[in-house]
Amino acid sequence: MSKELAIRAENITKVYKLYEKPIDRLKESLSLRKRNYHRPFFALNDVSMEINRGEVVGIIGKNGSGKSTILKIITGVSSPSAGEVYVNGKVSALLELGAGFNLEYTGIENIYLNGMMMGFNREEMDGKLNSVLEFADIGDFVYQPVKAYSSGMFARLAFSVAINVDPDILIVDEALAVGDLKFQIKCMEKFSEFRDKGKTILFVSHDINSIKRYCNRAIWLNAGRIEAQGDTDLICDRYTDYLKYGESASKKKDDKEEDRGLSLNKDIIGVIESFEIQDTQGNDLNDITYNSDFRVKIQFEMNTEDLEIVIGVAIHSIDDTYVCGINTLLDKEEIKYKKGVNAIYLDYNSFNLLGGSYYFDVAIFEKNAHIPIDYKAKVKEFFVRSTYVAEGICVLPHKWRMEND
Ligand SMILES: Nc1ncnc2c1ncn2[C@@H]1O[C@H](COP(=O)(O)OP(=O)(O)OP(=O)(O)O)[C@@H](O)[C@H]1O
């Protein structure tokens, strides 16, 4: 295995035996003629993947597609029916609640137990204990057996151990993304810190936006097989199309993009057709000059005219800092649209983001701006040219004056 590779899974198959009735399992085990009473179920079917050091890879797929199973096999919690896994480096895994914990042990004992399972000795774990406890922040509960913990406390401790032991490879199944918002944010910050340190992360989530935000590659599992893998945005967009429009749409995405605007499937409420940046005369722009005026033109097609909608536009910097998200609900603008293709302009005046690369997200939501009817992440990248050198993200409108002026 090359030094650059962190994980290699080769032709992994995982077959479970499914029994129609519980008694069939007993019958099978007692059968002298070795008769089968089960049918095989392929949770994974010939799955191969290679993950390089420093990659942050997201695994996506519908419920039951095999995401947790592949993580369990990679971490050695479960063994494959066929195929081989090679792992290069210390792995720390956040699998389903409880995996790797002994319920009868206290929190502290479990911290040491987990560390040792990862190959750290007692002295090494002594050195890590404080940061684990500080991050978990569950107070004196660490002296109680973990069976007395609430699921939130359990998650805090498990996350804290996995994240603070400084593994080479972090494997996270979203099953653990519980706990309160503050703690989730803390975990996400740690996650970014990990990514920035060039560690390898394998990450399962149903939250496509987090996958887009954090991962540089995505693997889409479907019914135990790899449906597609590659560029995160491309794979995530194909997957969300598949969830929204069904199989034919995701496979035909390229054709669909060609004839957008011609016909909408009746189950689709609306789609964003195009997003352009223009100067105030309507000429297309790729770069924006600092402090200039420009507009964006959003074309969208609606299949209805009875639904109140909200349109939102967000700007992120290229390192994924959320710069500004606005929508027509916040701005108390009512969208009057017709069935068919519509266009809306959003004017930006004296645009004062600092020089650098950014991108736009755009979305159509239902009237409360909670549920996206269509969401196009990273719909357009743009570059701000600026001669004003300051620090931060933007230059807020300002004026200097002396008290006596
Ligand atoms: N011990 C088991 N016995 C039988 N079938 C199992 C077992 N464990 C998992 N499966 C099945 O294997 C398939 C893949 O399960 P897995 O948990 O990997 O899916 P997943 O993609 O992680 O789903 P989710 O998004 O719901 O977490 C599912 O159909 C599941 O029912």
Which hetero ligands occur in this complex? adenosine-5'-triphosphate
* Order of H and E elements: EHEEHEEHHHEHEHEEHHHEEEEEEEE
Note poorly predicted spans. Answer: 248-266
Instruction: Report the CATH C-level class of the largest domain.
Output: Alpha Beta
Q: What is the CATH architecture annotation of the largest domain?
A: 3-Layer(aba) Sandwich
State the end-to-end CA separation.
Answer: 71 Å
- CATH homologous superfamily designation of the largest domain: P-loop containing nucleotide triphosphate hydrolases
Q: What is the helix fraction of residues, given as a range? A: 25-40%
- Average pLDDT reading: 85
Give a verbal description of the structure.
- The structure is a single chain.
- The protein has 405 residues and is of the alpha/beta class.
- The chain folds into two domains: 5-242, Rossmann fold (3-Layer(aba) Sandwich), CATH 3.40.50.300; 259-385, Coagulation Factor XIII, Chain A, domain 1.
- Helices cover 26% and strands 34% of the residues.
- A hairpin with a 2-residue loop joins strand 8 (217-222) and strand 9.
- The radius of gyration is 26 Å and the shape is globular.
- The model is unreliable at 248-266 (pLDDT under 50).
- The structure holds adenosine-5'-triphosphate.
- Adenosine-5'-triphosphate binds next to strand 2 and helix 2.
